[in-house]
Amino acid sequence: MKHDLKAVVAQFDLEGEFVDAQPYGTGHINDTYLVRLRQGQAVVPWIIQRINHRVFTNVPALMENILRVTEHVRGRLAALPGSDLRRETLTVIPTRAGKAFLEDADGNFWRTYIFITGARTYDEVRGRDMARQAAMAFGRFQKLLMDLPEPTLHETIPFFHHTPDRFARLEAAIAADAAGRAASCPAEIEFALARKASTGVLVDGIAAGRLPLRVTHNDTKINNVMIDDQDGRGICVIDLDTVMPGTVLYDFGDQIRTTTGTAAEDERDLSKVRFQIDMFEALVEGYLEAARDFLVPAEIEQLAFSGRLITFEIGIRFLTDYLQGDVYFKTHRPGHNLDRARTQFQMVRHMEAQSEAMEGIVARYR
Ligand code: ADP
Ligand code: GN1
Ligand code: MG
User: Fold this and answer.
1) Nearest protein Cα to ligand 2, atom 19
2) Mean pLDDT value of segment 70-81
3) How far is the CA of 224 from the centre of ligand 3 (A)?
4) What domains sit in the chain, N to C, each tagged with a CATH number?
5) How would residue 10 be classed by pLDDT, with cut points 50, 70 and 90?
6) N or C end of the chain: smaller count of CB under 10 Å?
């Protein structure tokens, strides 16, 4: 292993003897480890993450957000009978110096969380009930944060879900062609460039005051919610690095992107990439169950569209990264980002073809 996890964990406010550490999860940004400590008779797991500080350039601000969000959620849950505070929200373990993160001698940033037991994440959704539960969990999370006191959270990545800005960055990457790859993906570039017109719908809605800014998660893919092993409930929303002001539509949209498909995000055989409208229906049902009472009509009206938009947005982010030489997302094979872009665009095609049916479902459940 590249890093000395034993030395890292020793700096956090935890008792016990180091047993082992292993890379964990399939995230594209941070390095996540499961670290085990012997504590008395028990071997206890902890989650330790090296925060990607190239992506998150202001780690103190990021951790301040996470502390504020998790403490607020914990306070709200504590008032609800039957809550399990160690499993229903992330808990940050401070360093021995009392800080929320550790900066090591090499300039790496580390944090530690309680490991949530009896639950897991899924890279691919297993059935309608899981989709409904995940959507309910994200809706509940937004609701719990609606009364987060001032000041507003830090913007951990500026313009994160600003689709027109993402589009402009794609255009710049095509023009620069830094890795000499533009010639290898003319069809994908053409697909993207043909869809410029719709990129501004949500940011324009925010600017015009039609869509409210709320505290949103901004990375709601299915593997960022822990599903309880016993009862299948979405018990805890995790991966809070991008919690900041935003529209709930990018949150709902990314759930559509990551739960309605029949294939992995990086599937190479596009004939396997199909859109499942029954999964979309399960998402609408679960999300509206949790969020119906706070959403305004302008938000509900864009629920179906949001899936198309963010799937396009993530597609152009993968394509941009491919053109720039794979500098942002972790990749595990040549062409990985291009494969990811292709699956996203394939999903966009399917959603475009199904948009009326999707609107019909929203109308039925609203
Ligand atoms: P990334 O930003 O790289 O996606 P995540 O914070 O989502 O990192 O963590 C990666 C994976 O590690 C998650 O998908 C989940 O399976 C697991 N994980 C993260 N935090 C916890 C936790 N507190 N308890 C149990 N598993 C966790
Ligand atoms: C990244 O960290 P992870 O793997 O949950 C990315 C998301 C993308 C996602 C695509 C901070 O999420 O925006 O939607 O990959 N996170 C960041 O799978 O860029
Ligand atoms: Mg994640």
Assistant:
1) 29
2) 97
3) 5
4) 5-117 (3.30.200.20), 128-365 (3.90.1200.10)
5) very high
6) N
